[in-house]
Amino acid sequence: MSDIQDSKESLSETLDQVVSILEKHRLVENLVHKQEMPKHDLVESLVHRQNQFELQNILNDLHPADVAHILEALPLDERLYLWDLVKADRDGDILLEVSDAVRQTLIADMDSDELIAAAEQLDTDELADLAPDLPKDVLQELMDSLDALNRERLQSALSYPEDTVGSLMDFDIVTVRENVTIEVALRYLRRLETLPDHTDKIFVVSRHDVVQGLLPLSSMLVNEPELKIESVMAEDAVLFHPEDDAEEAAKAFERYDLISAPVVDHNNKLVGRLTVDEVMDYIREEAEADMLSMAGLREEEDFFSTVWKSVQNRWAWLAVNLMTALLASRVIGLFEGSIGKVVALAALMPIVAGIGGNSGNQTTTMIVRGLALGQISGSNMQTQISKELGVALINGLIWGGVLGFITYWLYGDYRLSLVMTAAITLNLMLAALMGVMIPLVMNKFGRDPAVGSSVLITAMTDSGGFFIFLGLATIFLL
To answer: Most buried of 92, 114, 126, 166, CB within 10 angstroms?
Structure first.
């Protein structure tokens, strides 16, 4: 834990150092530029090179992911200045590490030759991750430069939709035949320059590349060298197909503690492998996307993007929120007479709506999580509704009673106190019902239940809470 914390602090210090050098560079250049002196251009060039050299030394010592973090934390002009200082042979790795929004700004600053040189550094599966952001002419030129096997692999990877195993798999695979000995397999492995990352097992295949089983590297080390692979391999392999849902694959990796797993076609022929690093990246990206969606953002946003681009990213759910707010205001408008006669209603209305919205969002969060984990479906929907209504009823009676008592203490009207208790209880039950139903309905129609659920819940609890509270007040107080 301390190592992670130290690394985070070190990266923060490096970012501060980079920002400080950039500020000094800007200040000194301005001073030199304004002053008249002999060999002015030479002095300005030397100052410029000194700062460049210092920044390049810092960047060259950093991991591509750390360089990506620093680029993401800088305004556009400084980001592009720093990007020009990165060694050309690291461009591809860094482009894979930065966020989608920042990657677009970096690619827009590169010409075709630079993009092709960066992409040629990458493996086929990495190139497939970068390909959607590349200009079409650059992608076509890359396709033409690949050999037949890698071109076929790239086309195959690009053909699979996002959120499928095929879009995440890589093609760097080590295989052996089942009829060879462990000693032969070990000699084969020693001839390789390096093993692919996250190789915890090798795949046992037939002559036609049909998967027969898996051989963990640990089994090769603890068994006798003369034993044949077929006698020590595991035949109960967890297999994936390219069309499988990536989220389900991620759950399987967590459930079975997998590090790597084979990806096969419908004939069980090996076509690739799925590794834990790709699964972790997918989980992180999905979590970030869900968090953004729940806040009403359509996509990840560059912190230093233009005002107009940020407006485009945020307007959609703001428009929905505006419509729901107008609906709530019209509900209030229906009871203007009641509010005019009992002024206390205006002060108490926000409490009813606010506690209902909070409760509804709690319910929605639990249901969305249950859907993501595969623990909630149509078969147990009735159970979930009954449970959440029970929770809402108890919470409503407890906290509605507390607020009823406070209302009586403030206004001395027992009827208003009872209306407050009843309104809180009924609105919490409405929030519970909507908190279950909205995510389930969205999921049933193939929509992400995390997207906009909180906005819809707030709309229902605001409008419903106002209607219930003011309706009860109109009936029993006037």
So the answer is: 166
